[in-house]
Automatic annotation (TrEMBL), chains A, B:
One of its GO terms (biological process) is alpha-amino acid metabolic process. InterPro entries: Aminotransferase_I/II_large, Class-I_PLP-dep_aminotransf, PyrdxlP-dep_Trfase, PyrdxlP-dep_Trfase_major, PyrdxlP-dep_Trfase_small. The keyword Transferase applies. It comes from the Bacteria. GO terms for molecular function: L-aspartate:2-oxoglutarate aminotransferase activity; pyridoxal phosphate binding. Its EC number is 2.6.1.1. The lineage of its organism: Bacteria, Bacillati, Actinomycetota, Actinomycetes, Pseudonocardiales. This is Transcriptional regulator, GntR family domain. PANTHER family: AMINOTRANSFERASE (PTHR42790), KYNURENINE_ALPHA-AMINOADIPATE AMINOTRANSFERASE, MITOCHONDRIAL (PTHR42790:SF19).
Length: 368, 368
């Protein structure tokens, strides 16, 4: 087997066939024709002004509540630098994005995981912790098609979280890169929107999933004063983010490329999820999962006693890979895994699941 | 006067007429045709691999000694994070780039300015400090067409600095964004080159001055182990820098756009310097300066007693601006200023100097 035969359910990245390469060529031409000075000069740390304006309108906020960054992870890093000091209690979902855990732990946060249910974080477990004296700096929440679980926070729980944030005076960090990657069900309002300007929510998102990761365009929306502090830090870090890429993304948005791209991505991912669920039901019937309504990821629980840390190398020997559930948890989850279907074409999925099933059988033979 | 009438000698940024907009359109088309996956996917923190390889070849080092970043200021920030702890003694030139001073002071460095002469940092003042017990973490040096002074470090002093670095065990941080913007005289070897792999030099540069600032592509070259540490930090900050912009810059380099662009920039800047020197000689004969052989900046000393902090608002009232010399110094320099000619077309220069001269006369009238 060569590397190109590997079927990867590991990386939360889109396959090239769902990126609108021709549209990005056209958007670049338009950006460099219509605003060469803006696209190619130094900007300021707020990002490309027309893109910031468009995002402010999208979210119904003032422009000075928005800052466009080099990808949303850079935005997260700036925010963590502002909010976290060593020992800061921070609530996260259990499981959650591994890079979030890493970023928080690097800064010495006291990370407090709260269970994630099918309808999002267990707000009553959180309420009990708060009642017991926990005073978090913020709660980090991935509300839509959570990474790694694929679950979505219900409307009732969005409201409950905001109530708790108000009552116990903490910030909700709404980390929402997948919002527009919904291919089933109805969209829910963001907590940013539900908060109605009370300043309890800092919202982050990006164009990595709707345009392309390589453009590295993300943004935050938040209270004016916090955004101003992040802006000062961004200025001192890099003067300005990538104006060229942001001008291209802006043109892609206004020329209708974004909507076309989202429609294409969502149609492809819906097909992949259907194929993945059917393949799992057929070839790996012991796997438990819930079909996601959007996003890139599906969380799969294997029967208790299956050691996914041993399954992974057996799977890689057979030409398929994924990420172990334990990477997204501080403890537990030994029988879980995250399957990303964003980078795998539909025609590779059944084969990939077949290899997984074979790897699982090999463990049993070895144990038997 | 409207804002568009303002003649700005303030900002170290190129005017749009010396940026190859058409060439960048063509380079984008080529990048997205030849390597759409590389340009649009997530990369890794090393940057766009073909660009890294090209830079490694340019500098005669191994690829794992190079890291391509979102502009060289981001590279500086990563390096400072690695090298500086509160109280670290750091040698800088006097005057030096204001953002360097800011970045060092933010991290609590013990900043030790050493005089800058026409042929670069005063190595004997530095030697005396070292002899007196100073043990700097590193010396920050802008060797070519220094910002703000425009001076260039001589070959003899480059060698002397490396001797001192070896003898007193410190790193030379060679911050070299202007190297290729030489329009007179002969290029000198970098200290990176003169060090011959002994690992005493960390080198940083960028494409902001040779391609365009808005692409935000910079890089560092250094000892493998240090580059690996910066890479880890970059991964945790943003996963990967802007692959799209880096792929475009790469194509621009290999298609000959870079060489054409450098030739165009240098021809334009040479004309501006000649015009600026002639205008100063004629209209502001009391100004003392040395015509730079490259770069963006010229340092101007006005007669002792001229308070540039008062001159600046008088100049701005008359539609011309610049940066006060004191911004580049921890102390002193009240009669000095930095004139940047990178953003001013040649046909605006005489008018700009005329306004400066008028502003200076107005102070004398007020004082008289």
């Amino acid at each position: 087997m060569t590397a190109s035969d590997l079927i990867s359910f590991a990386r939360g990245a889109p396959s090239l066939d769902i990126i609108d390469v021709a549209g990005l060529k056209a958007a670049t031409d338009a950006a460099l024709t219509q605003d060469p000075g803006g696209a190619l000069g130094y900007g300021t740390a707020i990002g490309y002004p027309p893109l910031r304006k468009l995002l402010a309108e999208r979210h119904g906020v003032a422009e000075d509540q928005v800052l466009v960054t080099n990808g949303s992870m850079q935005a997260d890093a700036f925010l963590f630098d502002q909010l976290v000091v060593s020992g800061s209690p921070v609530v996260v979902e259990r499981p959650t994005y591994d890079r979030t855990l890493l970023g928080l732990r690097e800064r010495g946060a006291d990370v407090r995981p709260v269970a994630l249910d099918l309808d999002g974080i267990d707000t009553e477990e959180l309420a009990a912790l708060l009642d017991g004296g926990l005073r978090p700096t913020f709660a980090h929440i991935i509300p839509n098609f959570q990474n790694p679980a694929g679950y979505t926070l219900s409307l009732a729980k969005r409201k409950r979280l905001l109530e708790l944030a108000e009552q116990y005076d903490f910030v909700v960090f709404e980390d929402d890169p997948y919002a527009q990657i919904r291919f089933a069900g109805e969209p829910l309002p963001t907590m940013l929107e539900l908060d109605e300007g009370r300043g309890r929510v800092v919202y982050a998102s990006s164009f990595s999933k709707t345009v392309a990761p390589g453009v590295r365009v993300g943004y935050i929306v938040g209270p004016k004063e916090l955004v101003a502090r992040v802006r000062a830090r961004a200025t001192n870090t890099y003067i300005s983010p990538n104006m060229f890429a942001q001008a291209v993304v802006y043109q892609f948005c206004v020329d209708g490329g974004l909507d076309r791209s989202i429609a294409k991505v969502n149609a492809a991912l819906a097909e992949r999820v259907a194929t993945l669920c059917a393949a799992l039901a057929e070839q790996l019937p012991e796997a438990k999962f819930t079909a996601p309504e959007g996003g890139y990821f599906m969380w799969v629980e294997l029967p208790e006693g299956v050691d996914v840390a041993r399954l992974l190398p057996a799977a890689e020997e057979r030409g398929v890979t994924f990420v172990k559930g334990t990477d997204f948890l501080l403890e537990g989850g030994a029988s879980t895994m995250r399957l990303a279907y964003s980078g795998v074409r539909a025609d590779q999925i059944a084969e990939g699941v077949g290899r997984l099933a074979e790897a699982l059988r090999s463990l049993r033979v070895a144990a038997g």
